[in-house]
Amino acid sequence: MAAPGPAGAAASPSPQPPQLPSPFAELVKSPSGLEKVVLRGSRNCCVEVYLYGGQVTSWKNDNGEELLFLSSKAIFKPPKAIRGGIPICFPQFGTHGNLEQHGFARNRFWTIDNDPPPLPANPAIKAYVDLILRPSEEDLKIWPHSFEFRLRVALGPSGDLSLTSRIRNTNTDGRPFSYTFAYHTYFSVSDISEVRVEGLETMDYLDNLKAKERFTEQGDAIVFESEIDKVYLAAPSKIAIIDHEKKKTFVVTKEGLPDSVVWNPWDKKAKAMQDFGDAEYKNMLCVEPASVEKPITLKPGEEWKGRLALSAVPSSYCSGQLDPLKVLQG
Ligand SMILES: O=P(O)(O)OC[C@H]1O[C@H](O)[C@H](O)[C@@H](O)[C@@H]1O
């Protein structure tokens, strides 16, 4: 029998935080009161994932340098989605449907999934976490489909960040469902006018600033001089974001996601956003691997997988040395 506690006080064990399978992952409470999982890699390499939205908000390299953009005005309070990092847009991207903009996954509480169905083993990855989202009764009223959305966030040994989404139709009434999807990735850049994106030139795109009309990109790499909001269709699986000033290239690799959205609100829209600083558009760029043009359809029991992998490598593009094809083809 357990020893009695002090007179008048029942001995109640202090609640233990849930154990995570990876010893390099820790669940902590942020100053806002929201819980986040911190993944630690070598040296100062680190990733933070909020259970709210299943949203990565920070990815730091070996030197502790932040690679993702998070607005200084981000609001960490439901139902507002967190402005920055990698919001998950599901089951709807943007206004491509009747749901709220970008769907509801980004403003729901996800839970830790300590026993997910296995993914292909990668013994080199030690820091990871698995999250799961299932619809609540309220969600079923606005999107009447039962699903399991499993998200693995992993920090690789060389500081690469990967997100793997598995979405399963668990409807028991035989009905398929369709959705659109995006990893709405906000990259931190030194100065948007010094950035170019390679891999999307000559692609077709839908221009959200022109009533989703379809155009073909002309000429060279994409550079930025004004607001942009385009959905590039059937984009290549590798896209490079070259930051001349920081001499850094982000390599974005996507699987299962044909499209890629490119967004920067520029000055006017920045001012209109409550959770975004007036001048912050200069220091961010969204490149969002997505499936927008053709919705994904799953029959009951079927599962879809979509993966995003990010790495940040030094670039010498400013000296004209870098062969863009080398970046894109490895
Ligand atoms: O303000 P949010 O709902 O987070 O959306 C931010 C942006 O997301 C995407 O990039 C869309 O293409 C844009 O049209 C939208 O403005």
TrEMBL record:
Claim: Endoplasmic reticulum is one of the keywords in the record: no
Protein name according to UniProt: glucose-6-phosphate 1-epimerase
Root EC class: isomerase
SUPFAM superfamilies noted in UniProt: Galactose mutarotase-like
Region named Disordered: 1-22
Record's keyword annotation contains Membrane: no
InterPro entries assigned: Aldose_1/G6P_1-epimerase, G6P_1-epimerase, Gal_mutarotase_sf_dom, GH-type_carb-bd
Entry's family note: Belongs to the glucose-6-phosphate 1-epimerase family.
A GO cellular component annotation in the UniProt record: cytoplasm
Protein EC: 5.1.3.15
Compositionally biased tracts (Low complexity): 1-13
Xref: CDD domains: D-hex-6-P-epi_like (cd09020)
Residue sites binding substrate per the record: 83, 101, 106
